Amino acid sequence: MRLLVVEDEKDLNRILVKKLTSAGYSVDSCLDGSEAWDLLEYTSYDGVILDIMLPGLDGLTILRKMRSVSIAAPVLLLTARDTVPDRVKGLDTGANDYLVKPFSFDELMARIRAMTRPAFGMVDNRLQVDDLIMDCSSHKVERAGKEIILSAREYAILEYLMRNKGLVLSREKIENHVWNFDYEGGTNVVDVYIRYLRKKIDVDHEKKLIHTVRGRGYVLRDQ
User: Fold this and answer.
1) 165: Cβ contacts below 8 Å, ≥ 6 apart
2) What pLDDT, in 10s, does the model give residues 175-210?
3) Cα separation of 78 and 215, whole Å?
4) Residue range 2-120, CATH number
5) Which is nearest to 182 in space by CA: 48, 41, 2, 15?
6) Burial class (CB in 10 A: 0-12, 13-18, 19+), 120
7) Is there a contact between 67 and 61 (Cβ–Cβ < 8 Å)?
8) Are 6 and 50 in contact (CB under 8 A)?
9) Which helix (H) or strand (E) holds 78?
10) How many CA atoms lie within 13 A of 113 on its CB side?
11) Residue 169, pLDDT score
């Protein structure tokens, strides 16, 4: 999934990006509200981790602007304010969740998983297509009961395909969703990783799950 981290404390921002990236997320980040709004206007995110006290636009203003133009990405507010009125105000403004600093990274990860589940029709942390199962909390992937070891990038692409099962995803969509703005890669990078995934997911099985739709992109389906 692609996340946006908006946090003006440089050290915390850096740590969040590092930990989320190591957990398999594609992450963009910024240090002020004005830049955050520029990113939100032109990029589709699966989730936003948003500090409230920011230079430029504050977090609640950004949140109001998002909801006013129907940007539905789930938002987790980060703040040092822990009073009930503060939490109520944040949630009533349109936030999906609220986490008070200082916080545990494990709790942050669990809250991100929880707030993004409804958008993909998930009731727990598992994705399944036929006999291919992905546990998004443990990052364990298996097919027909056999564990499959994936690199972080392979996992991210497979997760994107599984969350959009049955939908044809263009190479551009996959690249834009899985890689962040800092990426400078080749034009066929998606094709290369799809080949890697096919070797691990499909090669030993009669039923293929990853399909190419000529001229359009790739789709993961069980038919």
Assistant:
1) 129, 220, 221, 222
2) 888 876 666 565 688 999 999 999 999 999 999 999
3) 42
4) 3.40.50.2300
5) 2
6) middle
7) no
8) yes
9) strand 75-79
10) 19
11) 93
| Cα four-point dihedral sign 191, 192, 193, 196 | positive
pLDDT, tens digit (0-9, with 9 covering 90-100), for 102-136: 899 999 999 998 888 877 666 677 899 999 999 98
* CB hemisphere CA count around 77 (13 angstroms): 28
pLDDT digits (tens, 9 = 90+) for 65-110: 999 999 999 999 998 877 888 888 888 999 999 999 889 999 999 9
Residue 117 or 168, more confident: 168
Domain span(s) for CATH 1.10.10.10 in the chain: 126-220
**Structure letter (DSSP) for residue 169:** B
Which residues pair with residue 27 across a beta bridge?
A: 3
Q: Average pLDDT of the chain? A: 89
Closest CA to 49 of 21, 71, 27: 27
Residue 48 and residue 153: Cα distance in Å, rounded?
20
Which CATH number is 126-220's, of 3.90.70.10, 1.10.10.10, 1.10.10.60, 3.40.50.720?
A: 1.10.10.10
Cite the residue boundaries of each domain of the chain with CATH code 3.40.50.2300: 2-120
Contact between 86 and 79 (Cβ < 8 Å)? yes
